[in-house]
Specification:
Layout: E1 3-4, E2 9-10, H1 25-32, E3 35-36, E4 53-54, H2 62-78, H3 82-96, H4 104-131, E5 137-141, H5 150-155, E6 159-161, H6 167-170, E7 181-185, H7 187-193, E8 206-213, E9 216-223, E10 257-260, H8 265-276, H9 280-288, E11 292-296, E12 323-326, E13 333-337, E14 339-341, E15 347-349, H10 353-368, H11 376-388, H12 390-393, H13 405-419, H14 431-434, H15 436-448
Parallel strand pairs: 3-4, 10-11, 11-13
Antiparallel strand pairs: 1-2, 5-6, 5-7, 8-9, 12-13, 14-15
Length: 449
């Protein structure tokens, strides 16, 4: 291991040295806080979501992913080399019979270097924040050799205040195998190195790039000079979790509810309070997606659907419901009702208004983010939970185990509801316990909004 005078800290060497010559506690903590999330491709989750989730593309079993997570944790905590990590890699692959893409040398290096570099960068940012009052500037440092990317070479010696927005997208590493780093500076350092604070940040020019996802090719916009998926500061979380960088905007007003017909004051209050209690990032997403919320005495006061609702027993009608999410060409909407037609044929007041609202909002959020429950990542988490939790899942309402995407949609919505404190499921244990991987996916999604 070696200290690096270029970066004001420690850097990942061109050979196999590990970045820190001392215990890199911030980086260790960053890695250990991550939740194991099975994925099919590295694009299953995006940018800041990687600050919460530990993934290895193609690692789709809990045990396999847990072993890789522990191996990376050991590598950073014990200062292990790439050669030592490869011994762990070989053992894990043999133990689990994992079939992976690419060569052994390439795949092991990508797992080792990408996880360690991102963890060290996240830890470095924490250090920078602690000393920015006395060291208020950052210098971009590229390794100026034949392998440096042209734009990274142009950014070399850029000096900007720590809080300049440019660092939120350009704090290195800025791509696969990027060796760039930053140097923390004060006024005396500027004079010593003959540097000046840059008049402005380098221009950010967006360009289209095509990436491969589990669902096919996708075109995205990224800043020129940064690989897709790296245009964020390592360790960055949504503003509410990130110490106010960038500043958290004032909370948006709660979604309004459109009440129809004659409903009690108590029902109005319960509905309004439940909607107001939703996380602001969720209401912002629903509002921007044009999703509306309606409340009435009966579901049939708003809709006149024929047939049996999905997942309900034969002979049921929409009058039996106290809530639903309706997707339609005129606009998606959540509908909740104060009463429902019981199986005895009598209209009865619902006692689960808050849980119903939370559940149907879960459906609305699922739709607003592009039907996440249909995706490969959530599907893999859901089915892995079903397999590994078979005994407990047997106690779950069959409503959440419907075939096709229906069971996944209902489980996503109910997990969201239970994360808000109350859902519709009356049976125990909690879906958060029975579907831990699916719950981790929803948590990560919420944190990325």
């Amino acid at each position: 291991m070696r200290a690096c005078h270029h970066c004001g800290g420690f850097a990942l060497g061109a050979a196999e040295a590990v970045p820190f010559a001392v215990d890199p506690q911030e980086a260790i903590d960053f890695l250990r806080r991550k939740i194991d999330l099975p994925t099919q491709a590295w694009t299953d989750i995006w940018q800041e979501m990687h600050s919460r989730a530990f993934v290895v593309a193609g690692a789709q079993s809990e045990a396999l992913l847990a072993d890789f997570h522990e191996a990376v944790n050991r590598a950073i905590a014990e200062g292990r080399t790439l050669a030592q990590f490869r011994a762990d890699f070989d053992h894990i692959v043999a133990t689990h019979g994992w079939s992976y893409k690419g060569s052994r040398a390439w795949r092991s290096r990508v797992i080792f270097q990408t996880n360690l570099r991102m963890a060290y960068a996240a830890g470095r940012w924490e250090q920078i924040q602690r000393v920015k009052k006395t060291r208020p500037y950052l210098r971009y440092v590229a390794v100026m050799d034949a392998r440096v990317r042209p734009l990274h070479a142009e950014w070399h010696d850029t000096v900007l205040p720590v809080d300049d927005p440019w660092w939120q997208t350009h704090f290195p590493p800025n791509g696969w195998n990027c060796r760039c780093s930053v140097m923390s500076l004060n006024e005396r350092d500027l004079a010593r190195y003959g540097l000046k604070v840059s008049e402005r940040a380098p221009d950010v020019v967006m360009e289209e790039r095509t990436i491969r996802t589990a669902a096919g090719a996708r075109t995205i916009q990224v800043p020129r000079g940064i690989d897709p998926g790296f245009a964020y500061r390592p360790g960055a979380l949504p503003p509410r979790d990130d110490g106010g960088v960038p500043p958290t905007p004032p909370p948006a007003p709660p979604l309004s509810v459109q009440f129809s017909g004659s409903v009690s004051d108590d029902f109005r209050r319960r509905v309004s309070d439940a909607v107001a209690a939703l996380p602001s990032q969720v209401t912002d997403k629903l509002r921007s997606s044009g999703i509306t919320i309606h409340a009435a005495a009966r579901i049939t006061d708003i809709i006149a659907e024929a047939g049996t609702p999905r997942g309900w027993p034969a002979g049921s009608t929409y009058a039996n419901l106290d809530g639903l999410f309706q997707s339609r060409l005129q606009g998606d909407r959540v509908i909740v009702a104060e009463t429902y037609l019981s199986r005895t044929g009598r209209w009865q007041a619902t006692d689960r208004t808050i849980g119903v609202i939370n559940h149907e909002i879960g459906h609305a959020l699922d739709r607003a983010v592009g039907d996440a429950s249909h995706g490969e990542a959530f599907g893999l988490a859901y089915h892995t939970d079903l397999i590994s939790q078979a005994a407990g899942v047997a106690a779950v309402d069959r409503y959440f185990l419907q075939a096709g995407v229906a069971g996944r949609q209902e489980t996503f919505a109910e997990i969201f509801a239970q994360l808000q404190g109350r859902g519709t499921a009356s049976k125990i244990p909690s879906l958060l316990d029975l579907f831990p991987r699916a719950a981790a996916f929803v948590r990560t999604l919420l944190e990325s909004l």
